[in-house]
Amino acid sequence: MALALGVDIAKETFTAALWSEGRGQPLGTFANQPAGFAALGQAVAAALPAAAVGSLPLVLEPTGGYELALAHWAHERGWQVSLPNPRQVRDWAHGLGRRAKTDAQDALTLARYGAERRPPAWQPLPAEIAELESLLRRKDDLEQMLRQERNRQQALARRPQVAGAVPGSIDRVVAALEEELRAIEQALREQQRRHPAIQDMARWLRTVPGVGERTVLPLVVLLHRWHALTGGQGEAKGLVAYTGLDPQPYESGTSVRRRGAISRLGARDLRRRLFMGALGGVRGDHALRGFYQRLVGRGKAKKLALVAAARKILVWAWAVFRRQQPFDATRVAATS
């Protein structure tokens, strides 16, 4: 039976719908908290045979973390949770002629997508990796806020007729943010100290050309996520697509040709980190520089060659993760 439960998540509530044998069935809107999860379970049990509830496919659209509590709740009950890329779901729905945008319609679309497309099952990250990810996100938030306040400091220094209290306020906020950033950085060091496996993986990944201090821990999280998402069977090509670095050629017939681009379906920040790693990495004396120079020598534009180098860093990092060993340049000499 082609069956799935779709859930459209908001901060305070979520809307659910079932799709079974070509028909949709709205289940209603529930509170995005444990009591609402229990109510959803009761609604599903009333709508389906008991045998279908045990391993029910559930499709959730990622919404900045609001979906995670429900995802964990459902996973603990044996439901097959999926968190597909929202853009892929939207493109698929547009192909069906869907244009309406309501919570109920979105839930039905997700349910139908799950029933017909069977997206891969989601697995929670190991607790220590999830904690590492939360620390990294907080570090990014603090760094962004600190940049904004420092920019305000510089702008005020050139602006006349500023109230005397304003520069002092900004100075205090900057000092507080700097203190919080130091605390988070210390927590990151403690997290690695408490979990030697994270420390080891970070050390091995640092042997990959182009992987530096700002890239290595986000890479640890990404690789663990891909490993969990694919049940340990993921391939490098799939990881590249998951990260949004997969090339997207544009051709039509024999005459229409446009410069290729990447899909950009994954996390933009990580792609930026990999690109900056490639930008610095191609200046070294190692396999990445040789790979880049060969592409440029064949006539590839330098920017395209840098994107390819960023992709190569990711592929090499996945090989290191799979083998649980440092990067070995002799393994890639013939193929890079």
In DSSP terms, counting alpha (H) and pi (I) runs of 4 or more, how many helices? Answer: 14
Helix content: 55-70%
**Average pLDDT for all residues:** 90
Spans with pLDDT under 50 lasting ≥5 residues?
A: 250-257
Detailed description of the structure:
With 336 residues, the chain is α/β, with parallel strands linked by helices. The protein has 3 domains: 3-117, Nucleotidyltransferase, domain 5; 127-194; 216-332, no CATH class. It is 59% helix and 13% strand. The chain has 14 helices and 7 strands. Strands 3-2-1-4-5 form a 5-stranded mixed beta sheet. Strands 6-7 form a two-stranded antiparallel sheet. Helix 11 (268-281) crosses helix 13 (302-323). The relative contact order is 0.08.
Write the layout of secondary structure elements.
Elements: E1 3-9, E2 13-20, E3 23-31, H1 34-47, H2 50-53, E4 57-60, H3 68-76, E5 80-82, H4 86-95, H5 103-117, H6 127-157, H7 165-194, H8 196-205, H9 213-229, H10 236-243, E6 247-252, E7 256-262, H11 268-281, H12 287-297, H13 302-323, H14 329-332
Parallel strand pairs: 1-4, 4-5
Antiparallel strand pairs: 1-2, 2-3, 6-7
Helix pairs in contact: 6-7, 6-9, 7-8, 8-9, 9-11, 10-13, 11-13, 12-13
